[in-house]
Amino acid sequence: MPGHIKKTTGPDPDPSPWLVVSPELKDKNKLKPYDPKKSVWVKNKADGGYLEGLLESKDGNKWTVNVKGEMKVFKEDQVCQVNPPKFDCSDDMANLTYLGDACVLWNSTIRYVNQLIYTYSGLFCIAINPYKRFPIYTLRTMELYTGKRRNECPPHIFAIAEGAYQGMLNSGMNQSILITGESGAGKTENTKKVISYFATICSSGKKKEGEASLEDKIVQTNPVLEAWGNAKTVRNDNSSRFGKFIRIHFNAAGKLSGADMVVYLLEKSRLTYQQPLERCYHAFYNLMSDQVPDLKEKCLLTDDIRDYWYVSQGKLSVESINDKEDMQFADEAFDILGFSQDEKYDVFKNTACMMHMGNMTKDFVPVGKDEQAEIKDEKNANIVATLMGIDAEWMITYFCKPKLKVGTEWVQKGSSCNNAASSVAGIARAIYERTFRLVVEKCNETLCDPTMKKVQYIGVLDIAGFEIFDFNGFEQICINYVNEKLQQFFNQHMFTLEQEEYVREGLDWANVDFGMDLQKCIDMFEKPMGLLAVFEEESLFPKATDQTFCEKLHANLLGKWPNFAKPNPRPDPDAHFAVLHYAATVSYNLTSWLEKNKDPLNDTIVEMIKNGSNSLMIQCFLDHPGQPLEAPKDDGGRKKKGGGKTVSSYFKGQLDDLMTTLYKTEPHFIRCVVPNTHKQPGGVEPGLIMHQYQCNGVLAGIAICRKGFPNKMIYAEFKARYNILAAKLVAKAKNDKGAAGAVLEAIQLEKEKYRLGHTKVFFRAGILGFMEEVREDRIGQVLAWLQSGARGKSSRMQFKKLQDQKLALYCCQRTIRNYYIGKTWLWWQMWMAIKPNLKCTQFGKYKAEYEGKIALAEANIDKAIAECNKVVAEHDRLLNEKNELDLALNSGGNAVQDIIDKTNRIEAARNDLQKQVDQTNARIRGEEETIAGIQQSGIKVTGEATKLRDEIKNLENTIGKCEEDKMTKDNQIRTLRDEIAHQEDLIAKLSKEKKSTGEGRQKIEEDIQSMEDRCNHLNKVKGKLEQSLDECEDTLEREKKAKGDVEKMKRKVEGDLKLTQEATSDLERINAELAQTVQRKEKESASLYAKIEDEQTLGGKYSKQVKELQSRIDELDEEIIVERNNRAKAEKNRSLLSRDLEDIGTRLAEAGSNTSTQIELNKKREAELHKLKADLEEANIAHEGTLAALRQKHNNSMSELGEQIDSINKNKAKSEKDKAGMERDLQEARTGLEEAMRERANMEKNCKMTQSLIVESNQKLDELARALNEADSTKKKLMVESQDLSRQIDETENAIAALQKNKISLTTQLEDTKRLADGEARDRAALLTKYKNLSTDAENLRMKIDEESEKKNDVLRALSKAQAEIQLWRSKFETEGLGRIEELEGSKHKLAARVSEAEEAIESLNSKISSAEKSKHRIESELEEMAMEYERTHAAAVITEKRGRNFDKVVGEWKAKADDIQAELEASHSECRNFNAEGFRLKAALDESNEQLDIVRRENKNLADEIKDLLDQLGDGGRSIHELDKQRRRLEVEKEELQAALEEAEGALESEENKVLRAQLELGQVRQEIDRRIAEKEEEFNNSRKNHQRAMESMQASLESEQRAKSEALRIKKKLEGDINELEIALDHSNKANNEAQKSIKRYQCQLRESECAYEEASRVRQEMSEKASLAERRANALQGEMEEARSLLDSAERGKRQTEAELAEARNAVNEMTTINSRASAEKRHIEGNCHTMQAEIDDMLHQAKNSEEKSKKAMVDAARLADELRAEQDHVNTQAKAKRALETQMNELEQNLAEANEHAMRGGRTAMAKLETRVRELEIELGNVQGRTGDNAKAHQKAERKIKELQFQNDEDHKNQERMSDLASKLQAKIKTYKKQIEEAEEIAALNLAKFRKSQQELEETEERVRMADGQLSTIRQSRGGSIF
After folding, report:
1. What does the H/E/C string look like for 570-615?
2. Is residue 105 a contact partner of residue 49, using CB atoms and an 8 Å limit?
């Protein structure tokens, strides 16, 4: 990447040619041929770029393009339009009118070819590597961008940096600059330029003498980081192999106040292996460059780099890198950064040690049968040990045979050569990496100046971009994961800003969230059981391999996450999986990922290094637990890397911190691009550039721009450019916005293509090109008009010219003719001769002469006037002198006498005055002498005052420093409090919003309840109406039920016959199935017996192993006893130490008492001093008294400061003692703050989620409210319809009453009753069939239950047999296995290694458990949220169900009523023969409606089942809400269909009513016919009456029997339903038990097979497992004991903690005392200043008095003698006071010397005591640290136990939940049973009503019979009367 141009003299060159598009280049671009409608880009397959062509024709989706004279056919989506030439070399690609890939590539290419390497793309700044140096980073360039906006200067990284800086100053928000790109793109160089820019323009100007400035330190971090973090790769000679985030801090004034950096993912694999064309890190080659003279000698290096094979596998030198110069820069940078010589050389030694360790890996040689690794040549090993500061022999031993802890013993495990070499390589990589981190931390300490305030910062992120190689490994997936999150961050930020501008401009725009497009891929990485979680789990599992890792990934992710796919075999055929990133799909090869992630270290070597003499090595491994040689008791639970922390987890933690930091800043983006792979300046490879644009997110950002309005233009620019399109409308417009709208309407542009904002016009992508086309067309028209006008004008001018020439020719001709005429004319010749002599012709000459004379006079007139005035004045003066002389001569001698008298008087006065002057001079001399004495005393006073002022200034400086520290602390506390208050405000706001939403929801529920109450009230009203309707319909139902009874009797017999046949067939089928099941169970039992026998054999073997383990347990118990004795001794030692501590405390108290006595002596001396000063105050004058008071106060302050010094020295040890604890507290507080910030981010996310849920719930509530309104409207419609129906029913009742009066209705009623009886019989038969079916089902279920219980009993018997056989085998094992104890002891050492592996596995499982617990807590929170959602949705579902049921009831009731009315109509039609056909048709319609009703009921039942399933599936997530919405919509659709069916039924009812009216008319005719036939039917009535009576009696008897049978059937039905429910529950339980039994059987079978295979393969594995079990038990016992001891230690630690807290309180009190002393000193300072001011005022007053005395001496000579006497007395008094003052000063000096001696004596004694106490305190702190470590480990063990307990609780809770779920199901079934019971009770009530109606009809029948009798009697009387009359 370009750097500074090195120049010797002269100013910086002008950078404009490399930054600004020149006018020549613009003109050249405009000359390019361009057709706005035909110029297109097409794909060039040769180089991956694009070619420009001309569109020839379009054929649907296929376009023909002329490319360089060749016709080619492309699809429409493969063709992109070309931008107009004015957009070429555009500074911002987002402003291009066409944003296709080809347009973006062309703009980048043409700028790069013209040496313009920086281009904007929206928020991006794209930087293309020029591979040469340009002068665009000089101070002159920086000045161009300082204080400018981005749009005011050409593209540059300085513009981005300036924008970040201005944004920080203006908004007060932290900023960040994200620089990404491939290797070799120039990321590091751009980062350096940005940092140098900030260091130059934001320099603080503060610089201490002999120390480098902060700006120099910031810039000098680059050589160190590049030497130890950069290396040569194939693409780049100076490639950064790590990522870094540099924060540059600024104070409130915007000046630099410090910096720090965080590094990410150093590439460690390069340390031990390099490819042939690559090189290791530059530091190794810099060390070998001989730049530092004594470096090789101290690092034990040779002169040849090839002697060290770790760093000589690739290239050894690079042409573009001077290793010697780089070493010089790095060495100087170390000095500037504040590294001491020892620290600097320790870094060099650690780096050289890694080189020597590479040679050491070649020295391992296999020895013996086991190929044990040993070192023959110890030369390299000795060098490594010397550089590490450890013993060489022990190092070799522990590399070849590392120590492992087995139980309580240490065991050495042999290693092969490969294992030993890999162990050395792991240590070497760790040394280099940790050294690099320490160097970075030291740089941070140097760059962070604690004295400077830090207000904001700008962070610069330099990290690798998205990578796709042929072989993509662990580093690539980490980098791509980072870029995935950064791209999501960019998407959210970019379009957020874009949309904020839309909203700010007032556009009609709905916000779009583009950040969630990448969330699925990120969730795949981060979610539980995601890619990183599986990777972490497999890394912690010791036996995991790459194959198992791949299988686990495919099992957990493939098919479940859309971004996880199978690999593409094209680039890497061995790839294992692929990930669909935002940039592309990348196939990854996970070979050796697990080893890279674990990065194991040899704990024994680490412990040696920690105990070695290399201080930097000790710091490197300070956070590593190591492996203490004395084997402390807390070491069992601790492992390497702080509990198995892997590289991926550490990297993810760093990335999470980085993302939280970035989300709190305002980001700026720079994308670095590699133009070609050959490092050729100006060379372009289009495919490579497009690939990087895709990976860097440039194309994604442009795609986002396409969805919005990427092209923007200010109204003034738009009006200036496009005014030509509608000039008249623009002139008429009131403002620029109206003018722009008028122009766009004039060209008829669609509204969707543009938007008008407040200050800008916004266009879609491509519209500006269209605008340019329209403008060019308009310009063409205008030019044509101009050309026509210009041509006309030029032709007219030519014509005028010719015309004028013609007239001139005429004039010339006329003049020539006249000349030739006058040439021969004599009069003309005479006139020409006379004319020169005439005066009239010489007027000009005379005029010129007179004008010259006038000018000369005007020039001399002023001079003449001045001379005249002088002469007049001289004349006047002479006249005056003449007059005076005349007067003097006339006055004479009187004047002379007067003059003589005057002289005499003057001489006398002079003598008197001379005497007075002498007297005053004498007095003045005396006054001057007194003034001189006063001045001398004043000089002394001023000297003393200056001394006091100096001391006061020193005190003020100290006080100022203290106040600055206090201010900084107060600012920090204030910021923390502000953050806490802000968080509390956010929480309060969220709680208020939550309360408001809850209140709103409660109000809505209350409204819903009120609406339901209204609905219930309306239902009651409707019920009353329905009751009245039912009473009217009873007469019709009586007839129906009578007919039904008759039909039921008939059906009953047929049903019984069918039931008996079906029962026999079912019994035969069940018998066959039972036989098959019996055979199958016999086979299964036989296989189980065989498996149980095998299990018994294994049980015997295991019993032997149990005995061996018991013996091993006894041995371990003995070891535990010994260990407990040792611990008792340790407790005794601890008690001795505590007693020593108490003795030291007593000594400290004595020392404190001595110091108190000294303080009392000082106080006594101060009291005496007070007395002396009081006497002095009585004797001195006022100003001397004030001076004494000042001295007294000064002495008081000095004494208080002495006391303060004593107290500070006294508390120094305490403060230092508490310092470490406070630092730990500070670290914990920082971690807590970071956790709080993360929790805050999570809370904000949760708040956003809850807000979205609240919005969704509000939408649902609105929908429910709309549904309620619709329901109310439908209810109102139904009420109106019910009123109409009631009116119609009244009319039908009248008609029915008329019909009932007829006799024919009686016959029809009898027929109906018969049909009803038949229907009842059929129903009874159906019930019997159902009863029999249910009974058969119940019997089948009972048989299945019996079979399952028998199976269960068989399994239990088999288990009991297996246990008995296990006991037998155990007893055999106890008797026979004791002889193999010695063999087992021999294999104990082998099993120790396996035990360690098992321990690691346990720890990995514990880590998994912890992660599972975290996931459990997270899932619990999600479950709680889902439960809340479930309750809400359940309430909504219940409400909808209630409404659906109400609607169903209403519909069913109205349909039932409609059916009844239709039945009545059928009955009425059946009475008439003419309407039989219509009656059958109505019956068919009734059947269809019944079928529809059954369909609706079935659909309602299905809907209820679906709703139940939906309720069961609510736990699966938010899908249930959408499904419920779908169900609700479906129900609404069905409701509408039912309403339509009701309307159809109502129409049918109206038509039937019309038919009824017609039937009534016909019935009148029928009555007439009946009246005629009465006489014929009278005899038939008598017979029919008798038959009716008999039939009624039989029907009554049959009805009673039917009622009894029906009640019996209902009772049986209820009983059967209860039995069925119980059987279903029992069946569920039995099925579960059966499934569990089958699972256990399968598990036992698998275990049997595995145990058989394990036994046949190796018995050694079983022995190892047994020893592992014994070790685990022993470890559990040991942990139990350690836990008890840890509790006691924890109590002691808590006591120590209380003591330290008390000491901390004392220190805080001392600090408070210091603050009070400081405040007191400041008050005294102010008082002293006031006294000084008073003294100065008094001196001024004295001077003023002296002046007054002089004036008084002049005024009154009489008082001179008195004043002289007073002055002498004052002088005597001053002398006496001066003497007394000198005596007091000598006394004060003596007292101060005595005080200083006393202080020195006390300080010496205090220092010695303090040194002793400090040493003792350090020892106690070490012990406290050990105790805390033990307590921490015990706490971890306790936490593990608690985790296990929580897991068991979780399992128990799940069981309870399952039980509750089953109880809920049971309650639901019971609710169903209750509904069925209610339905049965309703049916019984209906039957009772029918019976009442039947009895009523019977009474009416009797009444009719009585009427018939009466009519018969009347007829008989009539006949008799007629007969009598006849006869």
Report:
1. CCCCCCCEEEECCCCEEEECCCCHHHHHHCCCCHHHHHHHHCCCCH
2. yes
The Cα angle at residue 54 between residues 51 and 60, in degrees rounded to 5: 105
- The structure tokens 């890792």 sit at 549
Q: What is the spatial distance between Cα 753 and Cα 741, in angstroms, rounded to a whole number?
A: 13
Nearest to 1055 by CA among 854, 842, 729, 1318: 1318
SS3 track for 1130-1156: HHHHHHHHHHHHHHHHHHHHHHHHHHH
Do the Cβ atoms of 1392 and 1674 come closer than 8 Å? no
CA 197 to each of CA 3, 189, 273, 708: distance values in angstroms, whole numbers, following the listed order: 13, 12, 37, 34
What's the whole-number average pLDDT of the chain? 77
- For residues 337 and 443, give the distance between their C-alpha atoms in angstroms, rounded to a whole number: 7
Distances (CA, A) of 1321 to 371, 626, 1483, 1604: 97, 93, 21, 13
Query: What is the pTM (predicted TM-score) of this model?
Result: 0.45
DSSP state letter for 1584: H
Phi, psi angle pair for 714, to nearest 5°:
-70, 150
**Residue 442 · residue 227 · CB < 8 Å:** no
The residues facing 457 across adjacent strands are 249
Is 380 in contact with 415 (CB distance < 8 Å)? no
The CB density around residue 1877, as the number of other CB atoms within 10 Å, is 14
Encoded tokens for 49: 């770029």
pLDDT of residue 1040: 73
Burial class (CB in 10 A: 0-12, 13-18, 19+), 1614: middle
pLDDT in tens, 1671-1687: 767 767 767 776 776 67
Taken in order 33, 36, 42, 47, is the CA torsion positive or negative? positive
- CA pair distance 63, 68, nearest whole angstrom: 16
d(CA 169, CA 163): 10
Q: Which helix (H) or strand (E) holds 1848?
A: helix 1760-1926
- Cα 627 to Cα 1135: distance, rounded to the nearest angstrom: 27
**595-621: buried (b, 16+ CB within 10 Å) or exposed (e) per residue?**
ebbbbebbbbbbbbbbebebebbebbb
Amino acid at 1187: L
Write down the residue that tokens 């029999």 correspond to.
1332
State how beta strands 711-714 and 760-763 pair. Answer: antiparallel
Tokens of 1375: 């008797």
Amino acid residing at 339: F
- What integer is the mean pLDDT of 131-144? 88
Residue 1786 pLDDT > 90: no
* Tokens standing for residue 1226: 């500070």
CB 166 within 8 Å of CB 36:
no
Q: Tokens 């409207």 label which residue?
A: 1273
Q: What phi and psi values does residue 1253 have, to the nearest 5 degrees?
A: -65, -40
Contact between 782 and 724 (Cβ < 8 Å)? yes
For the stretch 430-472, pLDDT in tens is 999 999 999 999 888 888 877 778 888 999 998 877 778 778 8
Are 162 and 147 within 8 A, CB to CB?
yes
Taking phi over 0 as left and psi of -120 to 50 as alpha, with beta for the rest, 760 belongs to beta
Reading the block at residue 1185, the tokens are 């008294």
Q: Say which residues have a Cβ less than 8 Å from residue 1468's Cβ, sequence separation at least 6.
A: 1295, 1296, 1299, 1556, 1559
* Kind plus residue range of the DSSP H or E element containing 176: strand 175-181
Label the pairing between strands 175-181 and 456-464.
Answer: parallel
Residues 6+ apart with CB under 8 A from 1213: 1810, 1813, 1814, 1817
Beta strands in 1798-1868 (DSSP E): none
**Whole-angstrom distance, CA of residue 1442 vs CA of residue 1867:** 18
